[in-house]
Amino acid sequence: MTKKLLALLSLAAVLTTACGPSRQAGSSRGMSVRDDGRAVTLLSAGKPVLSYNYAVTPAPEGVSDVYARSGYIHPAWTPSGFVLTEIQPRDHYHHYGIWNPWTKVEYEGKLYDLWNLGERKGTVRARRIDAVYAKRKTCGFDATLDHVAFTPEGEKAILEEQWRVRAQEVPEGFLWDFESRLTPSSGRPVTIKAYRYQGFSIRANASWTRQNSTMLTSEGLERPQIDGSRARWILVEGETGPGRRGGFLFLAAKENYEAPEPLRIWNEEANGGRGDVFVNFCPTKMKDWTLEPGHTYVLRYRVLTFDGTVAPETAERLWEAFAAGNKE
Predict the structure, then answer these.
(1) 3-323, which class in CATH?
(2) What are the C-alpha distances in Å from 139 to residues 27, 33, 36, 53, 178?
(3) What does the alpha-carbon distance between residue 15 and residue 11 come to, in Å, rounded to a whole number?
(4) pLDDT band at 324 (very low <50, low <70, confident <90, very high)
């Protein structure tokens, strides 16, 4: 795919958004939504919470255009403005902040990889912004994405995904809900085959390594023991500046497929011993998941981004509120 074509795709994405470029909904003193023509950003009292990128982000200079992508969250911020996410790191150009692709997908008897873009077997693309939502205490957006398989007959959208993201500010930091609704879109079933990494994931800031970050799960496990374990939540903290810390808490809904979900994380030896931070709730790590035509399948997560530290007791309280259906 040429750079010129990527630019045209970006323009097309802009033209199909609901807000249009450089528009803002909501109050600067409460929750609001801003659309700059490439991304929708959720804000709390003017402070950015997260950005959803619906326009195509080109591959880095000198890298194949196959690594261009849209339909991901980056940046995600702490309340003080520290950027928690990373995109297109040199070790994994296909990593995109917070994103939700599938790695081993069976469709019409063939296997496709929508995660590893360099395999040229598939991708995920933002289709449109369906709605934005802003009130004094909460804001958000709805978006539609296409999961595309590169079949022998050509590109084919095999799954439609709808994202519903809602954010609010709470005493602990920024709290936002992520809901994914997956529906087969071609009239044929799609089976997500068991594989060690796929689904809701974060690639964290490149400054976080084994030297300055920590992980803890709802089951009391720390980083060396986490990969392959099941958990209701995972808490990740790291340095955000001299003498400062912050992080994120991922909560997984009790109704999700294979809950409590298996986790895929990079251990402390990842990337030649750097121990970069990658975290993935992987419902299909151990078991296939067949999505039938005419049915919609829902995965829900809640994310807290924060400055300072969060106690395990606080993480547990937030998960219990999420499980009970409370907004906070």
Answers:
(1) mainly beta
(2) 10, 7, 16, 17, 12
(3) 6
(4) very high
